[in-house]
Design brief:
The protein has 392 residues and is an alpha+beta fold. Helix content is 41%, strand content 15%. The protein has 12 helices and 14 strands. It has a 5-stranded antiparallel sheet with strand order 2-1-14-13-12, with helices on both faces. Strands 9-10-11 form a 3-stranded antiparallel sheet, with no helix packed on it. Strands 3-6 form a two-stranded antiparallel sheet. Helix 1 packs across helix 12, helix 2 packs parallel to helix 6 and helix 2 packs across helix 7. The radius of gyration is 22 Å and the shape is globular. The two termini are 31 Å apart.
């Protein structure tokens, strides 16, 4: 009897704790259901104001999708099909953090390159041009001192490398933050020079295939599933909106990747889980930590990860509610992602953007969505851990 009494005495507090957690989770679930129309209102208002033709919102955590919904249509054309969760988007500069950055970090993890390599090691064209101080890390954090330049249509990559080598550096390397696509154009070429494989092939084999991102590629085959983007008064389907990317043949380090919200969610879940998804590891935990650690410039006023944005003039998608260590990126085409490991939450916004001059309005849409996502779906870290323990 003594052993039974002891067992019951030790078990009851545990049962009470589990019941409390389940009640809190159930209450949170009911609250989420009641708050989700606020997201509908936000997106429908953006459509009514002709800011976007439509879009897809996905919110989740490392374990599952919590919210997933399409809105509006895939283009401004009156007969455009309705947006679907399976719609394929040109994600523009999200290419930097979902293709180029992980590829470079994968090579560093494998010891094939170092983030502290002088760029001249991989680009001998830079020798004797005053670029010895630029490191691979400076390209990833936009602190190289390089600015964007026009490319030659005859040989765009050669003109990018030679133009970068020839230009005069602006500011001190490592201290001046200047967001420039040229940094990531060079990084894609670095991947090719280090591996012999172009960026699209390396990223496909290293990430998209093992992660089950079956709709992610630089040259989408099913253009009929693509959302439209506007470029020079044309609506493009399955063709990169970015002109420099088109010059580079559709595969570039700064733009050109096409994907779905579902595929991006798998990538975000991998990042929150420290490089692994469904038992398949594509990056080491320490690599993810290094990628998302803060690197300061402009006297600490700008905080970037490697490739990723943390706190800068481009951080609108962080909104009000995500932690200081959250990170993400934007895409000119109307895309953004933001990931918060503290609340175990990510939010994806993919749109068919119509209005490009109203930058403030579009950034407000991004920020407001993330604010709602953090309010509705962000779970305190300790509760999230306990809930996962109960699931197991």
């Amino acid at each position: 009897m003594r052993s039974v009494t002891f067992f019951r005495g030790s078990l009851l507090p545990l049962l009470r704790s589990i019941c409390f957690i389940l009640l809190v989770v159930a209450f949170a679930t009911d609250s989420r259901a009641g708050d989700q129309p606020r997201i509908d209102s936000l997106m429908n208002e953006a459509i009514a104001r002709n800011l976007i033709a439509g879009g897809v919102v996905v919110i989740g955590n490392r374990d599952r999708i919590l919210f997933e919904k399409p809105y509006g249509r895939t283009s401004p054309f009156p007969d455009a099909p309705p947006m679907a969760v399976s719609t394929i988007f040109d994600i523009a500069s999200l290419t930097k953090v979902t293709a180029t950055t992980p590829s470079v970090l994968k090579l560093a993890e494998e010891g094939r390159i170092s983030l502290l390599d002088p760029v001249v090691k991989w680009f001998p064209e830079f020798a004797g041009k005053g670029k010895d101080a630029i490191l691979v890390m400076n390209l990833l954090t936009h602190t190289s001192g390089l600015d964007d330049i026009p490319l030659s249509s005859a040989n765009p990559m050669q003109s990018a490398v030679e133009g970068a080598a020839a230009q005069k550096l602006k500011g001190e390397v490592g201290h001046r933050f200047r967001y420039a696509d040229l940094n990531f154009i060079l990084l894609a070429e670095l991947v090719r020079r280090a591996t012999g494989a172009p960026l699209d092939l390396f990223a496909q084999v290293s990430f998209y295939r093992p992660l089950g991102m079956t709709d992610t590629s630089f040259h989408p085959r099913e253009t009929g599933r693509c959302s439209g983007t506007i470029s020079d008064d044309r609506v493009l389907f399955g063709e990169p909106q970015d002109y420099l990317c088109r010059q580079l043949g559709g595969v570039a380090g700064h733009a050109g990747l096409f994907t779905t919200a579902g595929d991006l969610a798998r990538f975000c879940r991998m990042m929150l889980a420290g490089g692994v998804l469904d038992g398949k590891r594509v990056l080491a935990q320490r690599t993810v930590d290094q990628m998302t650690a803060p690197y300061f410039s402009r006297g600490g006023l700008v905080v970037r990860g490697l490739g990723w944005d943390i706190s800068s003039p481009f951080s609108a998608p962080r909104g009000q509610g995500f932690s200081r260590v959250s990170f993400g990126h934007t895409g000119y085409s109307g895309s953004s992602i933001w990931i918060d490991p503290v609340s175990d939450t990510f939010v994806i916004l993919l749109t068919s953007r119509l209005e490009y001059k109203k930058v403030h309005d579009f950034n407000k849409l991004r920020g407001d969505l993330s604010t709602l996502a953090s309010q509705i779906f962000g779970i305190p870290p300790e509760l999230g851990e306990m809930a996962r323990f109960n699931d197991e």
